[in-house]
């Protein structure tokens, strides 16, 4: 008889709440729960699976714990598993992603429209994507950890993400997966995957550009996700400002447009911050020989910064986070174009005044 079969979902959920300090719990029950989870037997696996379909009022904490544990185990223990175990786990994670895309995990119980405690996303959007954003991100990180651990997994993940976009949920999941694919890698793994990432970027950048061109990123949440995805791929694949200007003109103009008007809506991260950081990162990419569109791209950015000085002044007075991002962009542009500044043209002098 299996000694851990008494571990139920209710006991598992109580343990999670105890870890978050919400309830007191008998230490013996906590130990039993931990043993059941670490044992990894059929009972604990049933516990993990049931958590994704729990109908408790707000299962986010439990789901996040499960997703985080799955991600951690994959990162730390994947290569110690047998081939059969790896295939079984990969199948289950892929099935979970498919069910999220299809909406089959959507909660049947409507919740009041109030801010989700784990993000700035309202509950109706949160329910449409099956999980709270913080949980979905962790699930996607687990999936991309699997992809990076298998031969050709990076290319397969990119192909799946850029082809499966029949709904807004597909777009959301694809952007989360693509972001995790290059953002959640340590330096050693990035060095090993640099060629794969560079090759994959030839598919990713046109995909992101197409999303902006077709207005599929019309919601604030999706647009911010798209910009975040673009930023991590620019850093990982070495996409210069000139390439951004010539290969993704609509995106480039959207980045510049975000600098013109103050964004006052509340939120943990404003779109203008990500836009400024994207431009800064692209400026730091050096191409040899320089692209022919480099001067035009730099001139467009310079003109924008000079024309939106009132907005920059507003951020300096009222929003330290945005002000830091924009001053980073200004200083990066100054460092990248130091020779031009020394020549002392009228625009260079005007930019020098802006820097001061």
Overall mean pLDDT stands at: 77
Broad shape = globular
Number of helical stretches of at least 4 residues? 19
Q: Give the helices and strands as they follow along the chain.
A: HHHHHHHHHHHHHHHHHHH
Poorly predicted sequence stretches spanning 5 or more consecutive residues: 1-5, 23-56, 107-128
Our estimate of the beta-strand percent is under 5%
What structural class do you assign from the helix and strand content? mainly alpha
Q: Helical amount among residues, as a percent range? A: over 70%
**Radius of gyration from CA coordinates:** 23 Å
Mind summarizing the main beta sheet? none
Give the tally of β-strands.
Answer: 0
Region (Disordered): 36-59
Keywords: Nucleus, Transport
Biased composition (Basic and acidic residues): 36-49
Subcellular location: Nucleus
Question: Can you tell me about this structure?
Answer:
- With 356 residues, this protein is mainly alpha-helical.
- It has three domains: 1-52, no CATH class; 55-236, no CATH class; 239-356.
- The protein has 19 helices and no strands.
- Helix 5 (83-102) packs antiparallel against helix 7 (133-148).
- The longest helix is centred in the middle third of the chain and has 27 residues, at 187-213.
- It is globular and about 70 Å long.
- It starts with 8 loop residues before the first helix and ends with a helix.
- Mean pLDDT is 77; it is low at 1-5, 23-56 and 107-128.
């Amino acid at each position: 008889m299996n000694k851990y079969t008494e571990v139920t979902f209710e006991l598992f959920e109580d343990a999670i709440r105890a870890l978050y300090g919400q309830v007191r719990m008998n230490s013996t029950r906590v130990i039993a729960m931990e043993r059941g989870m670490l044992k990894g037997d059929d009972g604990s696996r049933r516990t993990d699976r049931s958590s994704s379909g729990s109908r408790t009022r707000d299962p986010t904490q439990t789901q996040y714990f499960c997703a985080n544990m799955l991600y951690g185990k994959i990162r730390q223990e994947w290569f110690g598993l047998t081939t059969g175990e790896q295939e079984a786990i990969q199948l289950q994670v892929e099935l979970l992603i498919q069910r999220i895309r299809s909406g089959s995990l959507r909660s049947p119980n409507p919740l009041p429209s109030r801010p989700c405690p784990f993000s700035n996303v309202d509950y109706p959007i949160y329910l449409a994507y099956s999980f709270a954003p913080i949980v979905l991100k962790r699930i996607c990180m687990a999936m991309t950890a699997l992809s990076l651990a298998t031969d050709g997994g990076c290319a397969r993940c990119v192909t799946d993400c850029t082809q499966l976009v029949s709904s807004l949920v597909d777009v959301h999941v694809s952007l989360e997966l693509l972001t995790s694919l290059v953002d959640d890698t340590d330096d050693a793994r990035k060095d090993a995957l640099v060629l794969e990432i560079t090759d994959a970027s030839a598919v990713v950048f046109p995909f992101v550009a197409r999303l902006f061109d077709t207005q599929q990123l019309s919601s604030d949440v999706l647009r911010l996700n798209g910009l975040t995805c673009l930023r991590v791929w620019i850093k990982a694949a070495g996409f210069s400002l000139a390439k951004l200007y010539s290969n993704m003109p609509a995106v480039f103009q959207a980045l510049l447009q975000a600098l013109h008007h103050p964004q006052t809506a509340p939120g943990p991260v404003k779109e203008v911050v990500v836009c400024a950081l994207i431009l800064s990162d692209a400026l730091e990419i050096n191409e040899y020989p320089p692209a022919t569109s480099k001067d035009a791209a730099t001139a467009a950015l310079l003109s924008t910064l000079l024309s939106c000085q009132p907005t920059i002044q507003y951020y300096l007075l009222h929003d330290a986070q945005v002000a830091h991002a924009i001053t980073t962009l200004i200083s990066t542009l100054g460092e990248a174009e130091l020779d031009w500044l020394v020549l002392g043209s009228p625009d260079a002098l005007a930019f020098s005044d802006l820097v001061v």
